[in-house]
Amino acid sequence: MIFTETREGRRFVGEVPPGQPLCATLHSLAVNYRIASGWAEGSGYLRDAQVLPVLADGGFGAAVAVPGVALVGAMRVVISEKANAVDIIVRVMLSTAEGRTVSGVLVEGNSASVELLLQTFDDITLRRFDDHRAGLARWLDVGVRMVSADPETVRSGRVAMEAMPSRLLEDEEMPQLKAGDSLEHPRLGTCVVTQVIDQDRVAIRMHSGKIAQLHLGLLTLTRAGQRQGRPVYDVQVRRRQAV
Length: 243
Known about the structure:
CATH superfamily of the largest domain: Hypothetical protein, similar to alpha- acetolactate decarboxylase, domain 2
Structural class: mainly beta
Number of helices: 1
Number of strands: 15
Order of helices and strands: EHEEEEEEEEEEEEEE
Largest sheet: 7 strands, mixed
Strand content: over 45%
CATH class of the largest domain: Alpha Beta
CATH architecture of the largest domain: 2-Layer Sandwich
């Protein structure tokens, strides 16, 4: 049996706007907010969903299409790690206008307005493996997780959240940088974030070793993978609009 205590966490509320793929959006949120373990509840409506139904032997059958808009009667989301990557499991019970009910694991579906309440557990990493006998992604272990890589940002074991917005990340918003993240800047080259000063500024160390401040207001960051276990972002400089 795996059973552990967790004391560090965050809570989020928000809406996945109409037209956005639910599972892909949840995955992006988990990556951008560094969620290694969390649970969420959801309600609202899904459009054109694909659901894996549960079989009598405990496995899953072929994906069942739920065309049109369906009411989300229940939705539970589990965020964990599998094979060193973020893993999202979305269990749903959907009801259609024809009175049909479909339950199982959501493959994907577009939001027609899905509201979320998310609780994270930031001091642990929940790791899973595929149990082929049971046909499920079961718990492998729970690892103790460093809440922050930078000791100066920790107060009594809690992450300093000054740079973390209290709302869900929209597609065009700036990812939340942390010390140790890498930036591929078109003019400055490869830079490493050394400090998050505020929501608009970070301190960076350039390849030459020089430390400078980078203002984020006119930049667009795009996730470009990882380097030594930390995120790497491509930087684009937006042009100032003429006034």
